[in-house]
Batch of 2 targets.
Target 1
Amino acid sequence: MELWNDDGVADKTDLYDTIAGTGKALAHGKRLEMLELLAQGERSVQELARTVGLKLTTASAHLQVLNEAGLVATRRQGTSVMYRLAGEDVAGLLSVLCRVADTHRADVAAVRRTYLDNEGIRLVGREELMQAATEGRALVLDVRPAEEYAAGHVPGAVSVPLEELADRLAEIPADTEVVAYCRGRYCVLSYDAVRLLQASGRDAALLEDGILEWRRDGLLVTAA
């Protein structure tokens, strides 16, 4: 049944075509990377371009597409334009998109297994993590850059950015399991951190989720 008749302003096709504009905005890998980064906290176009490896003009064009689709919002800070997710539901949309693609497309799952080889890495769920942390049996380790940790992290997590981890191993208790996490389920930083910790003789595991999934489900995120 159409929303409007032939003499009306719009019909169901118009509605779905308009909604499809949001899907089109997601149809680029670099835009998905940017959304994952913005799930960590507000960033300038310069920071986003540098992190995802794009020229400034190209990054700006991608952000314009996301802005027009209503997926990001902006504010001006001095001479810079700061970007953020338009809402926590955008984090949820990105997370669900990734999960559906991983579940129903064999090629996505194959690439994920190649990129994120978790052989020999134990995965820890949220409930197990929080119980172990509460009982003092686990150290929750945030291996994202310090500014992302400051913008919001899992309650009780300790910040040791991956690039500093090798030089700060002495700060990690040798008799406590370490559970590492980073930006999201497909963030390689935590995988690298777990392997480094295991190579140093530490008992290390990987949190199944990252901040993207944490925000998606409305769980508490603590700002420094």
Note: The mean pLDDT is 91.
Target 2
Amino acid sequence: MQRRPVDLRERIIVALDFERPELAREMVLRCESKVGFYKVGLELFMADWFHTVDWLIARGHRVMLDLKFFDIPETVKRAVHRVNDRGVSLFTVHGDRSIIEAAVAARGDMKVLAVTVLTSFSDDDLRDYGFAGTTAELVRRRADMAIALGCDGIVSSGREAEMVRQRHGGTPLIVTPGIRMISPSEAAVDDQKRVMTPARAIAAGADHLVVGRPITRAPDPLSVICGMQKDLEAALDRDHEGSN
């Protein structure tokens, strides 16, 4: 499998889904000896604007700004311009054609990721919204379109990562949320429906794994991170051996 080189410290993106910035910063201080990539989503951003983003970048960390821009193209373009030059590495937009085009045109040095289908959605959920196909079919359509329009990559569950990687090779970034340490058949998985273990998601072709609660709600987040990284190293070694 074609795969871009990524430092192990940046394979995991810790999701700072906290209601208060001081909690987010405390978590970073607990994790930063092993992880150098963090996600700031809508909840934390609304509580803290760019302050935690700037704080993370000042500490030498990379930031994924996960606001999933979804508005008329001109508004999206202006919003992206507001993020340019702040040092953000990745930002997300919804996988709509006009939104992607606007974001790509305004992205500057950042990389834009198109969100394909949220990992909280199942096939049944899509049918409730009037889509007759499967989540995999919708991810394929949106990924093909996003990459054709110049997106740097996509956000998708690990279940679709292998399909996207096979169709598009090693060039697009694949960022995968919905990471759990056990499979869906082994336990209830809260509000995430299309989940995958870290090793399986990396083996399927994901470049980065967005991990929130399995790390941030653990009694010892650093221990969880170290365990995940050990599993990722083993999966990457197997993939390298299989490609030789």
Note: The chain has one domain: 8-243.
